[in-house]
Design goal:
about 90 residues; alpha+beta; Glutaredoxin; two-stranded parallel sheet; two-stranded antiparallel sheet; 3 helices; about 25% strand
């Protein structure tokens, strides 16, 4: 599992520390800002940010499942884990 956001690696470190540390890598889609988000269709041009999305990608590189909940939206980690286990 990998996490990715348009925030910098410094923001990622601080975010991870709020959970007492995390055991998966966080990738920074920081420069050029949002390039990966654009490639998955979740970049919001007018706002200059990415949508809050979860995209499960298989080992072969194909998207298995995707969901966007708007930048202010919330996701249920338990539901995401269940979905990943079902698809994995």
């Amino acid at each position: 599992m990998l996490g990715l956001s348009i925030d910098s690696k410094f923001c990622h470190k601080a975010w991870g520390e709020t959970f007492g540390g995390i055991d998966f890598p966080l990738l920074a889609d920081f420069h050029p800002k949002g390039e990966v988000a654009r490639s998955y269709g979740v970049w919001l041009d007018e706002a200059g940010i990415s949508d809050r999305a979860t995209i499960l990608v298989g080992k072969d590189g194909n998207v298995l499942w995707a969901e966007a909940v708007t930048p202010a939206g919330e996701r249920n980690p338990g539901d995401l884990l269940k979905m990943a286990q079902e698809l994995g």
